[in-house]
Amino acid sequence: MTRRRLLLLTIAPALLIAAGAIAWTLFFRPVDVQVSHPERDVMVQVFGLGTVEARVTSKVGFKAAGVLVEHRADVGDRVAKGAVLARLDDREQSARLARARAAVEQTQATLERATASLAKAQANFANAKSISERRQKLVESNSASIETAETARNAQAAAQADVNLASSDMAVARATIGDAKAQLQQETATLDFHTLTAPYDAMITARSKELGSALGAGEAVFTLIDPKTVWVLAFIDESKAGEIEVGKRAEIVLRSRPNQRFGGQVARIEPESDRVNEERRIQIAFDKLPADFHLGEQAEVYITTVRLAQALLVPEAAIIGLGKNRGTVWTVEDGRLRQHAVTLGHRLLDGRYEIVGGVPDKAAIVAELRGGLRVGRAGKIAQGPAK
Which residues of the chain have pLDDT under 70? Predict the structure, then answer.
């Protein structure tokens, strides 16, 4: 019994000391905590995935049917407006055009002849009229017979008929030359249809027909895009798209260039969302289009919706009972730990939330939860930024 008592007397103080040390560690020793600090010029961004697309894209072909005999462009080429892309065999149409030109020359000659005939008829009429008038005066003075005057009057009427006939011939010639010129314009236009030109400054993305192909009118030969209209079609979750507006700044990261960010801005917000995925379609225009771009390439977009002059940000993991822009956080006030229900604002892409209300003045918000946190326990703010 003596040994047992001695052993207990020896062990008991040690146990009491250990228990005290544990109690001190768990309940009384100040706990080191990391806290959040206000930050300046904070960008609130929305993330989305999309693909590189072109707003203006065209499938171009000939307006006339024929056989493709010449290519002047290929995939990847950039062509100016009006540049020749391809040609059809135009020998038959060139012959039609030559015939149309000959018809215009022929009708022009006919018109000139009709003009000369009218001038001659008008001169003959003027002469016959003058003779008739003189004969009438001679009859009145009994210097000429009535028969002679009648003959002169009939000659004047015949000359008038010749003038009318010549005028009709000239009207027919004018109508004929008008038709011939219209036919010439039609044949010229048809010949032009055998040459395919670029409708705008473009880049060729596809060539669907090769030399020797027999083409129907309107059949596509090339696919063109306007490089100035290349943008990223991005899909943004509707729940995060409310603050996106046209003109908002954005950053674009192409899948082929993950370490490079391209500047851009919101160019268009489509009025119709994707009903299945509940996403909004947003078009992001490049500030400066990359020289080597690829349509259909996947891209990440980061749209800046708000810039906060100053914000107090807390990691999501440090917020208890997060929901509906509300939550509870730990704070250090006058060296003691406290809890407060707070109002949350914007959420950043890195998972931190803006605290907009519910924190007393001079209170520091705990940025990292750890064991031993208890209301009223002493808290010591660790040096250095919060993780």
Answer: 1-28, 139-144, 146, 149, 384-387
